[in-house]
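Supplementary notes for students who missed Thursday's class. We covered one full example, reproduced here. Read the sequence, then the structure, then the short commentary at the end.
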Amino acid sequence: MEELRVTGGGHLGPIDSSRIPRYAGAATFARLPRLDQVDRADIAVVGVPFDSGVSYRPGARFGGNHIREASRLLRPYNPALDVSPFERVQVADAGDMAVNPFNINEAIETVQQNALDLTRDGARLVTLGGDHTIALPLLRAAAERAGSPVAMLHFDAHLDTWDTYFGAEYTHGTPFRRAVEEGILDTEAISHVGTRGPLYGVRDLEDDRRFGFGIVTSSDVYRQGVDEVVDKLRQRIGNRPLYVSVDIDVLDPAHAPGTGTPEAGGITSRELLEILRGLRGLNLVGADVVEVAPAYDHAEITGVAASHVAYDLVTLMADTLTPAAAPMTEDQ
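Structure (token representation):
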């Protein structure tokens, strides 16, 4: 099938959905070109099909392609931010990293090296998981590229700062404890957003505070509102290089049933998107969207939410990069 694409600003954009139906053809993210179809990418969307670090429901290894399928309905212009991200910069789908499902340590090393390879020419990464274990090697790569520890906003129902599970140091519940220990996070500028639910004990919170994390619970978002939450987060981050990690279970199960460790009382997809949009202008150097488990997702509810989150993250990155001049043709 001939690929009839929208173009603009000198960049190769998504397949033109006014000429080729959205449900036809290969499912790259937002129907964008593959990385091997462009000379270079300013932003690369890459999948990590890995879920060997989960402690409850498996299946997030299939999350990246599920998000891609759900992203077929995304369009080139983002009116919420008044940005055409695919016109402004070259965005491409880099496919999936090939990681070892039987060896977590090797998988982590592979993700880190692949992330460094993909960002060698200055590209920024939006990664589709996969479970939250992959955030650690992605943060390592982001800090190495930034040349310093990075600020981080962690959207999640859970803290993910526990020490070990069954003696294992590298799991989806431990990446940010390891990141603090390794000195790759700027502990003056890290925060959880959307946390809720039962814990193992009060020490979980005490340890978390000791690591330097601020906490904005889902109840805080409800009671304080998006604008106040955004203001506090922006004050905490300042102008530091920022990494955003989104566990889709930050959303209430009504908005994201397809995930491994659902917790009642979460934020809505609208609240999450509005908080992300409130980060406009910050130096977003990397991001991930993880823990989408399609086996538990009916009607693509979770996949649709995750695809829009990834799209807004791409838009935020594109907005801070040098704009192109020529307009993109309209996609109906």
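Commentary. The mean pLDDT is 95. The CA atoms of residues 175 and 263 lie 19 Å apart. If anything here is unclear, bring it to office hours.
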